[in-house]
Specification:
Elements: H1 2-25, H2 29-33, H3 43-61, H4 77-84, H5 106-125, E1 133-138, E2 142-145, H6 146-168
Antiparallel strand pairs: 1-2
Length: 169
């Protein structure tokens, strides 16, 4: 069951990564660096935000996890999906993962995003037990399994992709 569960979430993660990169690579330099709305980030800042957040997640994936008997590896995945994809609900990012306003090179930044996602995917593939709880609580969702962290990461990117697409439509 865990192999099938891991495969499912890896495929979901891959799909969300591809959709994100495809959407953001199509922005021109000016559009990539201009705020999507007054008081909001630019598409480049959203990409930078994900890189910063996912670098931290990568560190979590590489640490040994904790066991919680009877908990499925994806027990919170449906809840995560429902909550994260409510894109109209704004959540303030922690300062450590808030990007600075700057001009980004779209290609370089997206390459860095894809590289970070590839590292995270590889780390997940080598996790002995995807149902292990990460010894760090997510500020909104509490302790997540390594499977849930991977899915959260993909959904987090999808949330921001939808916010940008909706604002620019």
């Amino acid at each position: 069951m865990q192999v099938d569960t891991a495969t499912y979430y890896l495929k979901s993660f891959d799909k969300l990564t591809e959709e994100f990169a495809t959407t953001f690579i199509n922005f021109g330099k000016k559009e990539f660096n201009a705020p999507i709305e007054e008081g909001r980030w630019s598409p480049g800042q959203y990409v930078e935000h994900l890189i910063l957040a996912e670098a931290g997640t990568l560190k979590l994936m590489n640490k040994p996890g904790l066991r919680e008997e009877g908990r499925a590896p994806d027990a919170l995945c449906a809840k995560l999906e429902k909550a994260i994809l409510q894109v109209e609900h704004k959540v303030k990012a922690h300062d450590a993962i808030s990007p600075e306003a700057q001009t980004y090179n779209r290609g370089d930044l997206l390459d860095q995003f894809v590289d970070t996602r590839a590292e995270l995917r590889t780390a997940f593939e080598f996790v002995d037990d995807i149902s292990e709880l990460v010894d760090w609580k997510h500020p909104l969702f509490g302790k997540l399994t390594k499977c849930e962290w991977l899915y959260f990461t993909g959904l987090h990117g999808e949330r921001h992709r939808l916010q940008v697409v909706n604002a620019l439509s």
